[in-house]
């Protein structure tokens, strides 16, 4: 698995938000996209998912040019995307959220996730709207990982989640990486990022101001770009 993106330029209407971002992620690796509020992290992730047209740039996935393809086409090829907000259907129960659009009702799909997050297993028949914000993020995270994607794009999965469950998310991501899965994860929580990220892109005002191997750059240097 290899996704390579070059010179990504995108935005909303005439307003270009992301300007000239490039990177790549390979099988078994995780790329973190970090940056302060409003710098364009979600916009970049939406573009990588195929939800936003590119003004410029190219995406190559396993040798195929997927630049213009829609999210559903990418999903059929093994990509999954979890947005930052409105991550679950509030009027459906937890089970319905998990099995929506799936042909099977196979609980095995979620075995490792239910082990880590027993609250989900206990609340299968509860309305997703009755969950806290952090619990909804856990539900969306679990649904995405239950799909066993080759490449998961996650937008701030740890936002509002309790620290012990953030640690469990990191462990699940690490485990999935060891089976060959790859991740592109937008985050603000560097502690969480440091637990799984191989590579990092720091965005500021839509531009890439720092990129490279997380361990080589070091957390302090990355952190310096995040303080206001
Ligand atoms: N749907 C939209 N239409 C127009 N402008 C938008 C839209 N979504 C975001 N923007 C603008 O694009 C810029 C980047 O927003 P984006 O959501 O990508 O930032 P972010 O880094 O994800 O922020 P946060 O950390 O708050 O999630 C902001 O100025 C924002 O106001
Ligand atoms: Mg965002």
Distinctive features:
single chain, about 230 residues, alpha/beta, Rossmann fold, 6-stranded mixed sheet, 4-stranded antiparallel sheet, 10 helices, 10 strands, binds adenosine-5'-triphosphate, binds magnesium ion
CATH class: Alpha Beta
Strand order of the largest sheet: 6-7-8-3-9-10
Order of helices and strands: EEEHEEHEHHHHEHEHEEHH
Span of the ends, CA to CA: 36 Å
**Rg:** 17 Å
Structure, explained:
By secondary structure, this protein is an alpha/beta fold. The chain has a single domain, classed as 3-Layer(aba) Sandwich (Rossmann fold), CATH 3.40.50.300. 34% of the residues lie in helices and 28% in strands. It is built from ten helices and ten strands. The protein has helices at 41-49, 71-76, 94-99, 111-116, 118-122, 133-146, 163-178, 190-194, 214-217, 219-224; strands spanning 2-12, 15-26, 30-34, 56-61, 64-65, 79-82, 151-155, 182-187, 199-204, 207-213. The strands form two sheets. A six-stranded mixed sheet has the order 6-7-8-3-9-10, with helices on both faces. Strand 9 (199-204) and strand 10 form a beta hairpin. The longest helix is centred in the C-terminal third of the chain and has 16 residues, at 163-178. The N and C termini lie far apart (36 Å). The mean pLDDT is 96. Bound molecules: adenosine-5'-triphosphate and magnesium ion.
């Amino acid at each position: 698995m290899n996704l390579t993106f070059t010179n990504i330029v995108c935005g909303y209407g005439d307003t270009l938000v992301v300007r000239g971002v490039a990177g790549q992620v390979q099988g078994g690796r995780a790329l973190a996209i970090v940056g302060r509020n409003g710098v364009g992290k979600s916009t970049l992730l939406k573009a990588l998912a195929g939800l936003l047209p590119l003004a410029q740039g190219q995406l190559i996935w396993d040798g195929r040019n997927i630049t213009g393809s829609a999210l559903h086409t990418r999903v059929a090829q093994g990509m999954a995307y979890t947005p930052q907000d409105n991550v679950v259907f509030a009027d459906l129960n937890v089970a319905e959220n998990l099995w929506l659009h799936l042909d099977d009702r196979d609980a095995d799909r979620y075995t490792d996730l239910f082990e880590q997050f027993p609250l989900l297993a206990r609340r299968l028949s509860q309305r997703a709207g009755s969950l806290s914000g952090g619990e909804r993020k856990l539900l969306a995270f679990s649904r995405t990982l239950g799909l066993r994607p080759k490449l998961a794009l996650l937008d701030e999965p740890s936002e509002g989640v309790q620290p012990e469950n953030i640690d469990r998310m990191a462990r699940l991501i690490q485990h999935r990486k060891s089976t060959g899965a790859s991740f592109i994860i937008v985050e603000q929580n560097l502690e969480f990022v440091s637990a799984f990220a191989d590579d990092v892109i720091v965005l500021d005002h839509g531009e890439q101001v720092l990129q490279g191997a997380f361990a080589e750059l070091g957390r302090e240097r990355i952190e310096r770009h995040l303080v206001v």
